[in-house]
């Protein structure tokens, strides 16, 4: 009898659960909004992290929904999510009506996971206050201050490639670029000589890899935390991996204590944050930014490392992949770099690098074709009347912005799979909607470190092209397949390219 009751209870729970999910999946239909038919019980997320990359999933949804309305609907599990398909609506979300969409909706649990309290994840007034503190650390003047540090690492990068180029070997460039940017960020963010170019198995490099390793189980856990945040905090769940948090908290504690005790000053990001932490101001500027706690400093430095090393290394990897297949574009870029270097006596000065306009077009087109962050999230802060429609995006609804899909829309970029830097001449950019190219987001919540990312990418490519030529090899992944087990865009199996010296 007891087993019979247990069975009846179990079946009742299953039926109730099924009916609950089915009811939740009627949200968009009841609103009269076009939507992508959900897969029970995952919604649109079925296959993500195992067989499909998120860029592919949301591109398919964007294509299905475009033209039917200014936006459409999908489901993350049972949660309704908006996908904008009209660039004017997207411009409203980013800029004009930003007050409705100020937050990203990321999981933050500073009590148990201090590194989660970073600028990328924070919401509301706390984000605004922190953004005001950090923006002055990313001005062009501050970037110029760090430029010489990047150049020093870039020279080591050039030297590292030389023996491979002399032997005309094929090397895995994604790993090499990741080690290059690890050394840059380690120096600029922490004042630490990582030496990962010389020693690829350093702890810094190992931890850097760990940040972006996402198994299918890990993907489900992260999606769960995004959708059930209060429960996650109640259960003291962490967004970041414990070994990653322990490494950065320990490193920063030791570094900050040493600098403060010995009055060490360096031209790096950590030095700027320490000024804010201790005085609430930056040297040479009387603006009161407000002081920082150590935990806030740690979270921002961690974000600087995580965002700066992966995005730039991937962008350089994808750029070389295209240049290896388009020798005419590569030759033109090399000619520009060498010509400008002659003007500056062979020195990669800040001014020299800023003059490399064709190289910038290549980087922009790379970010168009391969936006490292393929999707962005915003959360509706209060009920929003969608312009020129009867629809309302309700408070608390997530908005998934499909950057990859927009960047590959033939309406904005004819023949979108073609690599063409001429898309980014001043004239072509002027004639295109500004929201057709958003690798760094847009509006008040755009990427605060955009200047730094572009700077180290420009320096890395210029240093390589001035001395070396890259070509495809039998190991080059053509066509490329994206690794589904990464949040960012990343080539599955790495990026193997042939490197040789130029005359």
What does the model show?
The structure is a single chain. With 503 residues, the protein is an alpha+beta fold. It is 52% helix and 7% strand. The protein is built from 19 helices and nine strands. The protein has helices at residues 2-24, 27-31, 54-65, 87-96, 124-134, 140-166, 173-190, 203-212, 216-227, 229-234, 242-262, 269-279, 294-325, 327-343, 350-354, 357-369, 403-407, 426-430, 450-467; strands at residues 71-76, 79-84, 170-172, 376-379, 384-385, 392-393, 398-401, 468-471, 496-501. The strands form three sheets. A four-stranded mixed β-sheet has the order 1-2-7-4. It has a three-stranded antiparallel β-sheet with strand order 3-9-8. β1 (71-76) and β2 (79-84) form a beta hairpin. α7 (173-190) packs antiparallel against α13 (294-325) and α13 packs across α16 (357-369). The longest helix has 32 residues, at 294-325. It is globular and about 80 Å long. The N and C termini lie far apart (87 Å).
Question: Features of this protein?
Answer:
single chain, 503 residues, alpha+beta, 4-stranded mixed beta sheet, 3-stranded antiparallel beta sheet, 19 helices, 9 strands
């Amino acid at each position: 009898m007891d087993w019979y009751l247990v069975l009846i209870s179990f079946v009742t729970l299953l039926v109730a659960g099924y009916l609950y999910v089915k009811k939740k999946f009627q949200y968009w239909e009841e609103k009269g909004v076009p939507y992508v038919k959900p897969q029970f019980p995952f919604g649109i997320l079925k296959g993500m992290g195992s067989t499909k990359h998120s860029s592919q999933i949301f591109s398919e949804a964007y294509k299905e929904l475009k033209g039917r309305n200014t936006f459409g609907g999908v489901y993350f599990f049972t949660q309704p999510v908006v996908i904008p398909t009209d660039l004017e609506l997207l411009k409203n979300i980013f800029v004009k009506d930003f007050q409705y969409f100020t937050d990203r909706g990321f999981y933050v649990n500073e009590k148990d996971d201090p590194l989660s309290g970073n600028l990328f994840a924070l919401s509301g007034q706390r984000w605004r206050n922190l953004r005001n503190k950090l923006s002055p650390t990313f001005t062009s003047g501050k970037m110029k201050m760090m430029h010489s540090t990047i150049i020093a690492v870039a020279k080591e990068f050039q030297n590292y490639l030389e023996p491979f180029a002399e032997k005309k070997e094929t090397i895995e460039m994604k790993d090499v670029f990741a080690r290059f940017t690890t050394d840059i960020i380690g120096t600029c963010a922490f004042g630490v000589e990582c030496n990962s170019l010389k020693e690829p198995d350093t702890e810094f490099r190992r931890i850097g890899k760990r940040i972006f390793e996402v198994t299918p189980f890990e993907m489900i856990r992260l999606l769960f935390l995004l959708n059930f945040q209060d429960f996650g905090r109640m259960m003291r769940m962490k967004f970041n991996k414990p070994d990653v948090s322990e490494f950065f908290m320990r490193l920063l504690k030791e570094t900050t204590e040493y600098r403060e005790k010995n009055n060490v000053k360096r031209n790096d990001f950590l030095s700027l944050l320490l000024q804010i932490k201790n005085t609430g101001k930056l040297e040479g500027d009387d603006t009161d930014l407000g002081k920082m706690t150590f935990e806030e400093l740690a979270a921002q430095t961690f974000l600087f490392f995580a965002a700066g090393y992966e995005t730039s290394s991937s962008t350089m990897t994808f750029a070389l992949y295209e240049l290896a297949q388009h020798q005419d574009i590569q030759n033109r870029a090399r000619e520009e770099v060498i010509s400008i270097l002659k003007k500056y006596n062979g020195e990669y000065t800040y001014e020299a690098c800023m003059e490399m306009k064709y190289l910038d077009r290549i980087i922009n087109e790379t970010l168009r074709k391969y936006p490292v962050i393929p999707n962005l999230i915003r959360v509706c802060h209060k009920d929003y009347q969608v312009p020129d429609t009867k629809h309302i995006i309700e408070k608390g609804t997530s908005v998934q912005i499909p950057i990859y899909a927009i960047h590959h829309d033939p309406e904005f970029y004819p023949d979108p799979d073609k690599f063409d830097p001429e898309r980014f001449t001043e004239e072509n950019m002027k004639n295109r909607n500004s929201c057709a190219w958003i690798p760094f987001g847009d509006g008040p919540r755009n990427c605060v470190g955009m200047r730094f990312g572009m700077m180290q990418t420009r320096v890395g490519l210029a240093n390589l092209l001035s001395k070396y030529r890259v070509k495809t090899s039998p190991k080059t992944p053509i066509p490329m397949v994206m690794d589904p087990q990464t949040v960012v865009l990343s080539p599955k199996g790495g990026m193997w390219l042939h490197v040789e010296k130029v005359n």
